[in-house]
Amino acid sequence: MPENPLKQLSDLGQSLWYDNIERSMIIEGKLARLIAEDYVVGVTSNPTIFQKAIAGSDLYDAQIQEVVTQNPVISAKELFEALAIQDIQGAADILQPVYERTNGVDGYISLEVSPILANDTEGTIAEAKRLFEAVSRPNLMIKIPATAAGLPAITEVIGSGINVNVTMMFSLQNYIEVANAYIAGLEKLDAAGGDLTMVASVASFFVSRVDTLLDKLLEETGKPEAKALQGKMAIANAKAAYKAFKEIFGSERFQKLAEKGAQVQRVLWASTSTKNPNYRDVIYAEELIGPATVDTAPPATIEALKDHGQIRPSLEEGMAEAPAMLERLKEFNIDYDAAMDKLQVDGVEAFAKSFMDLLNTLEAKREAIVSRQVSPMTMSLEAYQHSVDVRLKAWEAAQAAARIWDKDGTVWVSDPDKAAQTPELTNRLGWLTIGQEMLAEADHLAAFAAEITAAGFQQVVLLGMGGSSLAPEVFMRTFGTSSPSQGGGFPLTVLDSTNPVQVASVAASIADPAKTLFLVSSKSGGTIETLSAFKYFYHVVGQVKDNPGENFVALTDPGSGLEKLAKEKNFRRIFSTPKEVGGRYSALTYFGLVPAALVGVDMPKLLRRANTMAEACRNSAANNPGLQLGAVMGELALAGRDKVTLFTSPKIAAFGVWAEQLIAESTGKHSTGILPVADEAIAEPLHYGNDRLFVYLRLAGDDNVELEGKINVLEAAGHPVIRIYMDELEDLGQEFFRWEMATAAAGAALKINPFDQPNVESAKIKARELMAEFDRSGQLPVVTPTLDYDDIDVYGPAMGETVTASLQAFLTQFRPGDYVAIMAYLPYEAEIDAALNQLRLRLRDGLRAATTVGYGPRFLHSTGQLHKGDNNKGLFIQITHTPATEVEIPGEKYTFATLHAAQAQGDYNALQENDRRLIRFHIERGQDLAGAIRRLIPS
Q: Which residues are catalytic?
C-alpha cells in the first residue's frame, strides 16, 4: 500500500493544518480522525468559515436559544463569540496532545479578532487579550491582520505572551515587517521577564489570490512573455518570503532570543487551494513544501493531496531566483506593491463582509428567539398590509428601533437642532429602561408591602389623576381579589375625581381612617385634584390620629411640591420616580408598582415579562412587536382608520382605559390623532364605519368564546383585526411596554411628538380663571342656558321641545369618520355607568360612530388632549349636574362642588375656544341622574 502523501509532507518538516472549523467535526470525531489518520496538527478559522458553519447548520441553534434566553439583549458579536469560543475550546482540547507532543510547535487553533478592527491598533490589542483570556487555552493563536495598524498590535500582543497567527500578508515587504514585529514582541516579553518558550507565532502568507490578480494584470498586457509568467508569480512570491524568513530568523538578533527558547515564526501558506481550473488542483501545496513551514489547507485540498499529491522538498527549488522573478513585473508596468496592497485591502474587506453577514445572521436568530418569548400578535390587515410593510421596511432602513433606544429625537422631529431643543424628546424616554431598574427594586417593594401589613393597615386609597391613577386601577381590577388576612394584597380604592358625591362615597367606604393608607400620587406634585383630596383625607385621619402623616405615602418626582409637603407632614414614605418618565408612560414606575405591590401583584414576574417585551422591542422592525403594532396604528390612521377599538377578555378589561390615555394624549395633537375606544360593547359589522381598527387582547383560560366569535365576524366582514394572545395576568407587564413602544412609533408615523401634551393645560387654565373669579367674588361666573327643560338645562346649539330632540338636532352635524365623546362630570355609580353606556351604544348604532365615555375631570388628563388637539372630528356631549352632597376642602374657601363645576365649565370653554362641536346637558339638583341620562337617548 503506497505511503500516505500527507505523512510524506510531515516527514519533510511541513505541518499540515486544517483550514476549516464547524461544530460537527468536533462532536462527531472528524477532527480527531484527521489528527490520527491524516497527520493534521493544527486548525485555522476565519470569519468566512464561521459564517458558513453557523448559517449552514442547526447544530448551533440550541446554544443560541440558551444564550439568548439568558441574555435577550446580547449583541450579535457577543453571541458569535459565545458560539465560536465553544468551538475553539473544543478543537483546542482535541489538539492539546499534539501541542504537548510537539512541545508547543503545533497543536494550535486560531481565532481571529474582528476584521472590523483591522485599522484599529488599540482595539485589536484589547480584543486579542480579551479573547485569549476568554478561551483560556495555551494552544490558542489569535489571528491579527498584517495591516499598518496590525503591526504594532502584533508586537504588543506577542510581548504579552499571547500566541499570534498573523494573517492577510501578500507582499514580501509586508512579510519582513511582520517578522520584525514578532521579534520586537519577543524582545519586549524578554525584557519583562517573560518565558519565551511559551509563545508561538505563524505568519500566514497568502498564495493563490496573488496569481488570481497578477494573472489578470499579465493577461491585460497582451504580451506573450508576460503571459508566460501566469501561474508562476504566486509561488515565486512565496519563495521570496521564505528566503527572507531564513535570513531574518538566522540573524544574530533572533539567535539571542532563540538561545532563551524562542521559536521561529514559521511561514504559513494560506489560500493554497487552486482558484484557476486550468492549473493543477494541488499546485500550490506541492510547490511550497519545506521545513519550518505550515500549509493550512481546506478540506478539498487535503483530500486532493492525499489522493494524488506528489510530495517533494520543493520550497527551496528556485528560491534564490524568486525575488528576481518578482522584479520582472516592472517590465510590464505592473506595480507589485500596489497589487499586493490591493489584495490585502480586498481581503480585509471580504472578511469584514463575511463577519457582518455572520452578525446579521445571528441577529436575525436572536430576534426570532426574543420575539417568540413575548405574547404573540397576529394581524389581519388585508389591503392595508402593504403600507404597513412599507413602513416597517422604512423603519428598518432608518434603524428606527436602535435610534429610539438611543433616545434620538430625530425619530420624531427630523431636524436635529429642533429635536435637540425639544425637551420631551430628550428627557421623556426613561420608560425604555425603567423595567430593568424597577426589577432591582422588587424586593424593596415587597418589603414595603410587608411593612404596611405589619403596621396593621387594612385598606389603601390612592389619590391621583390620569397617569397616576389608571395603572393602579388596572392592577386593582385585575389582581385585587383577596385581602392580607387571606394571604393576598390590600383592597385598593382609586379616587380620581373632584365630584363631591364621589369623594363622599370613598370616605364612606373607609372602615377605619386610622388603619387606611393613602397614596398621594402626582408627578408634578401640584395637581389640584390630588392636593384637594389630600387635604380632605389628611384632615379625616387627623381626627383620629395625632400623627396622620404616618398614613400617607407620596409618589412624585424628586424636588416637586408634593415631596416638600410630604416632608413637612412627616409622610411615612416618599417614592421618587425619575423625571425622565412621563405620566402616561409611568405604569412600570413607582406610580404603578407601589399600588401593585400593595394589591399583591407578583412584582418580579410582572417586571420580567415587561423586560422580555422591552428586549423584543430592541429588535429590527420586522421582529419588533412594538414597532409592528405602531406601524399598524400609524398607517391605518393615515388611511382613515384612526379609531383603535380595544376588546379584551373579561379579566383584563381594565387595560383598555389605561391604553386610552396613552394613545389619546400621545397622538391627539397638531390636527391629527388616533382615537382609542375602550369599553364599547362589540356589535355586528353593520354598526361600524370604515374608520375602525380592532384590537383583541385574549387571555388564555378566560371566558372568550362569545367575544371571539364576534371578532371573527368582524374580520370576515373585511375589518382590520389584531389579536394579542396572553397566557397569564402578569403578561400585562408585556402589554404596558408593547403599547408604550407602539404609541411612540405611531407618533413617528404621524410626524408628531408623542411625549408632549400641548392642549392639556387649556382646560386647566380656563378652570383656574374661573376659580380666580370665585376667589374674588365668592361665586363662579353665571352662565345662562340656551334652553331650560325644568330639570335639565341645555347649553350650546340647542333646539327642540325636549332634551332628546335637542340632542338629535345637535347630532345632525355628524359626518362619516367623526366620533362622539360623552364627557360625564358625574360620580362613578353602576346605574349611572349603565345609562351612559346605553346612550353611547344608541349613538354608535344610529350613527355608525365611534363613541367614548369619559368621567370628568379624569379624562382631562387623557382624552382631553385629543379633544382639543385633533382635526376636529369629535362631537362633544358634556353632562354635568348640581350635586346634592357638599364636601368642604380644609383650608380652602372653595368646596369640591365648586372645583368640580369650575373644571367642567373650564373644559367647556376650552372646547368652545377650539371651535369644537359641543353641547352641554346640566342635570339640576335632586334629579335621578341615571334617569335623566336615559331621557337623552334618541328613539
A: 143
